## 1
Amino acid sequence: MTSIDVQDLTKEYGATRAVDRLTFRVEPGRVTGFLGPNGAGKSTTMRLVLGLDRPTSGSATLGGRAYVTLEEPLRHVGALLDAGAAHGSRTARDHLRVLAASNRLPGRRVDEVLEEVGLAPVARRRVRTYSLGMRQRLGIAAALLGDPRVVLLDEPSNGLDPEGIVWIRELLRRLAREGRTVLVSSHLMNETASFADHLVVLGRGRLLADMPMRDFIHARVEPSVRVRTTDGAVLRDLLARHGYDAVEREDRDDGGGDGDGSGGRWIVRHARVADIGRLVSGAGLPVLELAALDGTLEQAYLDLTAAETEFAARPASPSPIRPQEV
Ligand SMILES: Nc1ncnc2c1ncn2[C@@H]1O[C@H](COP(=O)(O)OP(=O)(O)OP(=O)(O)O)[C@@H](O)[C@H]1O
């Protein structure tokens, strides 16, 4: 199995330390989301892993080997770093055929990956006529060409239409199921939440988090419960007697209640759905609605990176944050 190992990695550009003593491992068989604010060092780290730049110190290896020592590297590692990398005057098919030939890959792989990324019908068009999303698909085709064990994708959803976004999500999940090592950078938190199992988060070149996505969210966003019963006042007193901090939330649609005289929904902070359900039904109150409010990756991420964002356009959000009251 091929992991990516980043060990004490540092990269300086003049006075800028883009990557700062970074150590983490990307394991096979899962999708690792690579997150961090603009300028955090994600692309630089990927470039160092791919041997496109030399570290100032430390190392980045694939299955224990530096990229530059790999023969026919596309057979080991596929990467999408810059969707504009293909030559505009070439057709997509020719672009891939050149790549395949230089890595001694069979020509049939070109047609297979063009089919896989949905570009087969336009494969003979020049790349300069491609839209951003089509170029992105071509970059992904190039990454998959050598059937590699390791896949690194920098912002793969960039420019993709909704169908393309669903497609990339399913592709990433499948690559992980096949036991490949998949590292994907993104600024789209909902997207990342839909495909990542694990997260590596950077801030100003340093490692801020390296953990399962679920743990990352649970550690930062307090769990809450949404509940509605036939009698809001009785519910409020009951919850208060048991020490729960609950607030009534006006319904957005009709300004309160569902026409059944029950009042609005209550959001109970620091609560688990089983505890609130037991309490309310134990008191004999009919439950009209009961739901766990899970924190989102976006909330957890913003909480962590608020202090790390070099180019923040607004003040940091208060902490701790609550799940979205949807
Ligand atoms: N070739 C370079 N020369 C000088 N500085 C660079 C170079 N490449 C990156 N940097 C600097 O290194 C830091 C990290 O940049 P990097 O592109 O790795 O961040 P990133 O996390 O990928 O950001 P983004 O999310 O905006 O793509 C930034 O301060 C950037 O300006």
## 2
Amino acid sequence: MDAYYGQSHILRDLSMHVEEGEVCALLGRNGAGKTTTLRSIAGARPPDVREGTVSFKGRNVTDRSTEDISSLGISLVPEERRVFPNLSVEENLHLSDVARNWSNTVGRDVSMDHPGMSTEEVYEVFPRLEERASQKAGTLSGGEQQMLAIARALKQDTDLLMLDEPYEGLAPQIIQTVENAIERIAETGTTILLVEQNAVAAMNIADRAYVVDQGSIVFAGGSEELRGDEEIRERYLGV
Ligand SMILES: Nc1ncnc2c1ncn2[C@@H]1O[C@H](COP(=O)(O)OP(=O)(O)OP(=O)(O)O)[C@@H](O)[C@H]1O
């Protein structure tokens, strides 16, 4: 696909696919076009997708609204970790239930492989959140807020979970906790598309990886293959 912000041509003939049930990483330097790719898939506008298509489970979803796309089972956890700072962890999770029930009443024409998790299931994935259930979200650590943002996404019916830089600003041992949680989510069969600056951490959990540079894919292959490709790593990832 080709995507633009106004006149700026950002994604240039970018082509990728994510297999059902896999963890796929999209890597690349600052400004390479990673977030733009996720927003294009999620139907967030801007950017404008002017050429090419986004398809999900065989349907063309290119011109659908974000609400429509989310009701088809695609959830995006943006870099900003959207949580309600003045509400407790539990209240944040409860609000996601409200949103989900509302979207169910609107009705949809597809069956979901991964219906939204209950609060109990979310707490199994993130025991830390249960410990902090009554704490205000705004007072959680960065890692805990990331867990809450992911947890809120999982309360929606999610067949494809897209995570934009989930490790950003987190200390190594917290990265490990978030990593374990992502692995647990993947074990449930939920497909994951992970955008990361931290290529080493992403390669640890991804089955396959794409590297994007200046809006185009410059590498596609298995994580092992990328690990062994010193030229691509040095040139585009700086690792
Ligand atoms: N709203 C916008 N309007 C105009 N240009 C934008 C907008 N958002 C992003 N861009 C530009 O699009 C290009 C790709 O940005 P994008 O956010 O997709 O990069 P990224 O790979 O996610 O980088 P980072 O890792 O720094 O988040 C950059 O040159 C950026 O300046």
